Amino acid sequence: KLFFTDYGNAAKVERCDMDGMNRTWIVDSKIEQPTALALDLINKYVYWLDIYLESVEVVDYQGRRRQTITKGRQIRHLCGLAVFENNLYTINSDNLSILRINRYNGTDVQALARLDNAKEIRVYQKRTQAAVRSHACEADPSGMPGGCSHICLLSSSYKARTCRCRTGFILGSDGRSCK
Predict the structure, then answer these.
(1) Euclidean distance between CA atoms 3 and 16, whole angstroms
(2) Is 119 in contact with 93 (CB distance < 8 Å)?
(3) Percent composition of the chain: helix, strand, coil (DSSP 3-state, to 5)
(4) Of 1, 50, 136, 165, which has fewest CB within 10 angstroms of its CB?
(5) pTM of structure
(6) Quick one: CATH architecture of 1-125?
Protein backbone atom coordinates (compact mmCIF):
# COMPACT_ATOMS: atom_id res chain seq x y z
CA LYS A 1 0.00 0.00 0.00
CA LEU A 2 0.95 3.62 -0.53
CA PHE A 3 -0.06 6.14 2.17
CA PHE A 4 -0.12 9.90 1.57
CA THR A 5 -1.55 13.21 2.77
CA ASP A 6 -3.38 15.92 0.85
CA TYR A 7 -4.48 19.32 2.06
CA GLY A 8 -5.85 20.80 -1.16
CA ASN A 9 -9.61 21.35 -1.33
CA ALA A 10 -10.32 18.78 1.38
CA ALA A 11 -7.56 17.75 3.77
CA LYS A 12 -7.14 14.02 4.24
CA VAL A 13 -4.89 11.03 4.79
CA GLU A 14 -5.31 8.39 2.08
CA ARG A 15 -4.05 5.01 0.98
CA CYS A 16 -4.08 3.15 -2.33
CA ASP A 17 -2.47 0.17 -3.98
CA MET A 18 1.01 0.79 -5.41
CA ASP A 19 -0.51 1.03 -8.90
CA GLY A 20 -2.82 3.87 -7.76
CA MET A 21 -5.98 1.75 -7.67
CA ASN A 22 -8.35 1.34 -4.71
CA ARG A 23 -7.78 4.86 -3.43
CA THR A 24 -9.35 5.18 0.03
CA TRP A 25 -9.66 8.06 2.47
CA ILE A 26 -8.67 6.92 5.96
CA VAL A 27 -8.90 10.34 7.67
CA ASP A 28 -11.13 13.10 6.27
CA SER A 29 -12.56 14.90 9.31
CA LYS A 30 -10.99 17.15 11.94
CA ILE A 31 -7.92 17.51 9.73
CA GLU A 32 -6.62 20.72 8.10
CA GLN A 33 -2.98 20.68 7.02
CA PRO A 34 -1.34 17.25 7.30
CA THR A 35 2.28 17.80 6.33
CA ALA A 36 4.19 14.69 7.40
CA LEU A 37 3.34 11.01 7.61
CA ALA A 38 4.97 7.97 9.18
CA LEU A 39 3.98 4.30 9.30
CA ASP A 40 4.30 1.71 12.03
CA LEU A 41 4.58 -1.28 9.69
CA ILE A 42 4.42 -3.88 12.44
CA ASN A 43 1.31 -2.63 14.27
CA LYS A 44 -0.22 -1.07 11.12
CA TYR A 45 -0.63 2.50 12.38
CA VAL A 46 -0.42 5.78 10.44
CA TYR A 47 0.93 8.86 12.25
CA TRP A 48 0.71 12.40 10.87
CA LEU A 49 1.50 16.01 11.78
CA ASP A 50 -1.21 18.64 11.28
CA ILE A 51 0.56 22.00 11.51
CA TYR A 52 -2.69 24.00 11.31
CA LEU A 53 -4.43 22.10 14.13
CA GLU A 54 -1.06 21.84 15.92
CA SER A 55 -1.36 18.12 16.59
CA VAL A 56 0.30 14.76 16.05
CA GLU A 57 -2.30 12.02 15.61
CA VAL A 58 -2.57 8.32 14.79
CA VAL A 59 -5.07 5.89 13.25
CA ASP A 60 -4.88 2.27 12.17
CA TYR A 61 -4.65 1.41 8.45
CA GLN A 62 -8.46 1.46 8.16
CA GLY A 63 -8.79 4.90 9.79
CA ARG A 64 -10.08 3.57 13.10
CA ARG A 65 -8.85 4.02 16.68
CA ARG A 66 -7.86 7.67 16.17
CA GLN A 67 -5.86 9.22 18.99
CA THR A 68 -4.03 12.47 19.55
CA ILE A 69 -0.41 11.90 20.58
CA THR A 70 0.40 15.52 21.40
CA LYS A 71 -0.91 19.04 20.75
CA GLY A 72 0.57 22.50 21.10
CA ARG A 73 2.03 25.52 19.38
CA GLN A 74 5.40 23.77 18.92
CA ILE A 75 3.78 21.44 16.32
CA ARG A 76 3.52 24.23 13.72
CA HIS A 77 7.34 24.23 13.49
CA LEU A 78 7.72 20.48 12.93
CA CYS A 79 8.59 18.86 9.62
CA GLY A 80 9.28 15.27 8.75
CA LEU A 81 8.16 12.33 10.87
CA ALA A 82 9.58 8.87 11.55
CA VAL A 83 8.59 6.00 13.87
CA PHE A 84 11.04 3.76 15.67
CA GLU A 85 10.29 1.57 18.66
CA ASN A 86 8.34 3.63 21.25
CA ASN A 87 9.12 7.01 19.73
CA LEU A 88 8.35 9.44 16.95
CA TYR A 89 11.21 11.51 15.55
CA THR A 90 10.79 14.89 13.86
CA ILE A 91 12.65 18.08 13.00
CA ASN A 92 11.87 21.42 14.64
CA SER A 93 12.41 23.86 11.76
CA ASP A 94 12.41 26.83 14.17
CA ASN A 95 15.61 25.85 15.98
CA LEU A 96 16.78 22.95 13.70
CA SER A 97 16.73 20.34 16.43
CA ILE A 98 15.82 16.66 16.21
CA LEU A 99 12.99 15.86 18.60
CA ARG A 100 12.03 12.53 20.11
CA ILE A 101 8.38 12.18 21.16
CA ASN A 102 7.19 9.17 23.13
CA ARG A 103 4.30 7.90 21.02
CA TYR A 104 2.48 6.49 24.03
CA ASN A 105 2.99 9.53 26.26
CA GLY A 106 3.13 12.63 24.05
CA THR A 107 4.20 14.83 26.96
CA ASP A 108 7.63 13.15 26.96
CA VAL A 109 9.42 15.27 24.29
CA GLN A 110 13.21 15.55 24.16
CA ALA A 111 15.55 17.53 21.90
CA LEU A 112 18.37 15.20 20.83
CA ALA A 113 20.67 17.22 18.58
CA ARG A 114 20.87 20.31 16.40
CA LEU A 115 21.38 20.37 12.64
CA ASP A 116 22.47 22.99 10.15
CA ASN A 117 19.51 22.41 7.85
CA ALA A 118 16.95 19.62 7.57
CA LYS A 119 13.38 19.18 6.34
CA GLU A 120 12.94 15.40 6.61
CA ILE A 121 13.96 12.56 8.90
CA ARG A 122 14.22 8.79 8.38
CA VAL A 123 15.21 5.93 10.64
CA TYR A 124 17.32 3.24 8.98
CA GLN A 125 17.61 0.14 11.09
CA LYS A 126 17.28 -3.52 10.20
CA ARG A 127 14.22 -3.98 12.46
CA THR A 128 12.34 -1.21 10.60
CA GLN A 129 12.61 -3.04 7.28
CA ALA A 130 9.77 -5.37 6.36
CA ALA A 131 10.74 -8.91 5.42
CA VAL A 132 10.62 -9.35 1.65
CA ARG A 133 8.67 -12.30 0.32
CA SER A 134 8.26 -13.54 -3.19
CA HIS A 135 6.13 -11.03 -5.15
CA ALA A 136 4.58 -10.40 -8.56
CA CYS A 137 7.24 -7.86 -9.62
CA GLU A 138 10.21 -10.19 -9.27
CA ALA A 139 12.33 -10.46 -12.41
CA ASP A 140 11.23 -13.10 -14.89
CA PRO A 141 13.78 -15.40 -16.63
CA SER A 142 14.59 -12.65 -19.16
CA GLY A 143 15.22 -10.14 -16.36
CA MET A 144 12.04 -8.06 -16.81
CA PRO A 145 10.35 -7.09 -13.52
CA GLY A 146 7.10 -9.05 -13.30
CA GLY A 147 7.37 -9.66 -17.02
CA CYS A 148 6.79 -5.94 -17.68
CA SER A 149 8.96 -4.25 -20.29
CA HIS A 150 9.20 -0.94 -18.36
CA ILE A 151 7.60 -0.58 -14.91
CA CYS A 152 6.02 -3.16 -12.61
CA LEU A 153 3.77 -1.93 -9.79
CA LEU A 154 2.34 -4.19 -7.11
CA SER A 155 -1.44 -4.13 -7.16
CA SER A 156 -4.03 -5.32 -4.63
CA SER A 157 -1.65 -7.86 -3.08
CA TYR A 158 1.95 -8.99 -3.37
CA LYS A 159 0.73 -11.64 -5.84
CA ALA A 160 -0.83 -9.14 -8.28
CA ARG A 161 0.86 -6.55 -10.48
CA THR A 162 0.15 -3.87 -13.05
CA CYS A 163 2.56 -3.00 -15.86
CA ARG A 164 3.05 0.65 -16.79
CA CYS A 165 5.17 2.46 -19.38
CA ARG A 166 7.63 5.32 -19.19
CA THR A 167 6.51 8.69 -20.54
CA GLY A 168 6.08 8.66 -24.30
CA PHE A 169 5.18 4.96 -24.50
CA ILE A 170 1.84 3.15 -24.44
CA LEU A 171 1.05 -0.25 -23.02
CA GLY A 172 0.58 -2.95 -25.63
CA SER A 173 -2.48 -5.22 -25.86
CA ASP A 174 -0.59 -7.93 -23.98
CA GLY A 175 -0.61 -5.71 -20.86
CA ARG A 176 3.17 -6.14 -20.48
CA SER A 177 5.09 -4.58 -23.37
CA CYS A 178 5.44 -0.86 -24.10
CA LYS A 179 5.46 0.66 -27.58
Answers:
(1) 7
(2) yes
(3) 5, 40, 55
(4) 1
(5) 0.84
(6) 6 Propeller (2.120)
